[in-house]
Write a structure and sequence with these properties.
Protein name: ECF transporter S component
Helix content: over 70%
Structural class: mainly alpha
Organism: Peribacillus butanolivorans
Oligomer: single chain
Shape: globular
Strand content: under 5%
Distance between the termini: 40 Å
Pfam families: ECF-ribofla_trS (PF07155)
Keywords: Membrane, Transmembrane, Transmembrane helix
Radius of gyration: 15 Å
Number of domains: 1
Length: 137
Amino acid sequence: MGNGGLIHLGNVPLFIAAMVYGKKTGAIAGAFGMAFFDLISGWAAWAPFTFTIVGAMGFLASLISEKVPGKRVFVYTLAVAVALIIKIVGYYFVEVILYGNWIQPIGSIPGNVMQVVIAGIIVVPLAGRLKKRAGQI
């Protein structure tokens, strides 16, 4: 979408790892999982940026899920919203650097929003139940 970015469901396991298993797992799942995907799918130039951006998404989504009090559905939604901001801002500035243009990267924002929103719609209702199940194992 936009500048050739791709849309996938990789944010679903990222958010599950972050919300169910904690900061370290969320960061590792995001950083290594998504960077590895970039490496094997023809997007290798993006892997170092993905490692940093998506690792931060996983870490902060997990931190919010663990530390913010309140109804879990709202907390998980906040975690997804913060991850969305990290993704949009992070990839926007990487594209500005790579393409040398402040306007062109705006075209990638809708795809990034779509990926994270769809993942949030899938994961937010499941995260609490998955966390309970994981605690029973």
